[in-house]
Design goal:
Blueprint lengths: L17 E5 L2 H4 L12 H8 L15 H14 L4 E5 L2 H4 L9 H17 L2 E7 L5 H5 L8 H16 L5 E5 L2 H9 L11 H25 L4 E7 L3 E3 L4 H16 L2 H4 L10 H10 L14 E5 L4 E5 L8 E3 L2 H4 L12 H12 L7 E5 L16 H20 L3 E7 L18 E3 L6 E3 L1 H10 L2
Parallel strand pairs: 1-2, 1-11, 2-3, 3-4, 4-5, 5-7, 6-8, 7-10, 10-11
Antiparallel strand pairs: 8-9, 12-13
This protein binds beta-D-glucopyranose.
Beta-D-glucopyranose binds next to loops.
């Protein structure tokens, strides 16, 4: 499908379908050490770990801290109705707890006010991976105190912004940051092994539900969600071993966090790793505490994963069969592009009967964008959105729980360990001059959303 045979537009969805564009504080704000902001785990990790591919850091990123008014104008100009952003914990609580930084508080008031003035509904994420560094020194997400620290941060945000912000997401992709940052050591804070992973998983599940309860207590008429990374998992062959491998991967990737959130406890299905998690955290005692009745679940999807059995991979005996090996369509990071899988994974999440509503809170693609004579002709991204929104449209007709879609992301930004080379934005950013250029996919969105 190409951009010229676009078959749908926002008009083909119901009037109240929510169209947004998503961002996160650490990836765009910059201004890492001004106006009293404390350091985050990512500030330190980027500089010390040697694990950022282009050796970059988050110091300036997109300078959104200074440019938010212009950037919001772009989001508005493209026709989005919702702006999703996150609050940098260490900007408002430089040490994670204790002293409140009024300049940081003011920044988010200004940002929210600007959104409201432009008619962009703010959807606020409370934690998008940038933990205050001071708290990491005390154990970060592996410390059981994190639930208390996080609760104080959430209370502060609700009290400050709850009159103006009604839409909240507690945590961004718990599986991604606990697995990458506390098991595999490739994201901040760079910790490895089950001794870090298990407590991080348990504490995150507890903090996520507690965050929901706090918002419900403090904010009148709140619409409360949290977000999960999800991928359709496909066995490489129909062999029993590959199917078992896919099942274990599914437990880890898709079910580990949503099931305790829904009151089902951690998944098990005979997976020894889950027995160990349950045993070490005594999670069965906390089924109720890990549960919260979220108004919506944020589904975030980028790719499916094909899995085969492997006896050399410990614990899960499963390994991914990379898209490059299977010669399937891929994005600039080698991630499989597959709109059918996008459709299937949303259906899978919608099938949990106590999931009330679903918003796709992130979906998008990275390509090797080039700016030529001031134009970024990113046809691959246009095709990506075209096929994915066509799948979304089909689902919209079938699945009443599906309420909205947020594109990832407004601006090219700091893509974690990939640095600045992996571009996901609808807007091209020259990171030397900070010049913004709306990509052709941005204009495609503008036409798609036009009423
Ligand atoms: C994260 C984003 C990230 C995107 C693309 C999601 O997992 O929430 O912060 O940039 O994926 O990798």
């Amino acid at each position: 499908m190409t951009s010229s045979n676009k078959i749908i537009s926002a008009k083909d969805f119901s009037e109240d379908f929510i169209w947004g564009v998503a961002t996160s504080a650490p990836q765009i704000e910059g201004a890492y050490n001004v106006d009293g902001r404390g350091l985050s785990t990512w500030d330190v990790f980027a500089k010390r770990s040697g694990k950022i591919k282009d050796k970059s850091n988050l110091n300036h990123a997109c300078n959104f801290y200074y440019r938010y008014k212009d950037d919001l104008l772009i989001a508005k100009g493209l026709g989005f109705k919702v702006f999703r952003f996150s609050i940098s914990w260490s900007r408002i609580l430089p040490d994670g707890t204790g002293k409140v930084n009024q300049a940081g508080i003011k920044f988010y008031h200004n940002l929210i006010d600007e959104c409201l003035q432009l008619g962009l509904t703010p959807y606020v994420t409370l934690f998008h991976w940038d933990l205050p560094y001071t708290l990491q020194k005390e154990g970060g997400w592996t410390s059981h105190f994190i639930v208390k620290w996080f609760s104080k941060f959430v209370k502060l945000c609700c009290k400050e912004y709850g009159n103006k912000v009604k839409n909240w997401m507690v945590i961004n992709e718990p599986m991604s940051f606990t697995a990458l940052g506390y098991m595999l050591g490739i994201h901040a804070p760079g910790k490895k092994g089950l001794n870090n992973f298990f407590p991080a998983v348990f504490n995150t599940a507890m903090a996520q539900a507690e965050g929901g309860r706090i918002i419900r207590d403090i904010v009148d008429n709140a619409n409360i969600g949290t977000t999960f990374s999800c991928s359709e998992i496909k066995p490489y062959t129909n062999s029993e071993l590959d199917i078992a491998a896919a099942n274990k991967m599914d437990i880890l990737i898709n079910r580990l966090f949503i099931e305790p959130t829904l009151g089902l406890g951690f998944p098990n299905d005979g997976f020894a790793l889950m027995d160990k998690l349950n045993f070490t955290t005594k999670a069965w005692r906390y089924i109720e505490k890990m549960q919260f009745d979220f108004d919506f679940i944020g589904v975030q999807n980028y790719f499916p994963i094909t899995v085969k059995h492997s006896s050399i991979i410990p614990i899960i005996n499963a390994m991914e069969v990379k898209p490059s090996k299977r010669k399937v369509p891929q994005n600039g990071l080698g991630w499989e592009i597959n709109a059918d899988s996008f459709y299937n994974i949303i259906r899978k999440i919608a099938a949990y009967h106590n999931v009330k509503n679903i918003i796709v809170t992130e979906n998008g693609a990275c390509f090797n964008d080039k700016i030529v004579n001031g134009v970024v002709n990113d046809t691959e991204r246009i095709n990506y959105f075209n096929t994915h929104l066509t799948a979304l449209h089909k689902l919209h007709k079938e699945e009443p729980k599906l309420k909205g879609y947020f594109a990832w992301t407004l601006l090219d930004n700091f893509e974690w360990s990939e640095g600045y080379k992996a571009r996901f934005g609808l807007v091209y950013v020259d990171f030397i001059t900070q010049l913004r250029t709306i990509k052709q996919s941005g204009y495609w969105w503008r036409d798609f959303l036009k009423k």
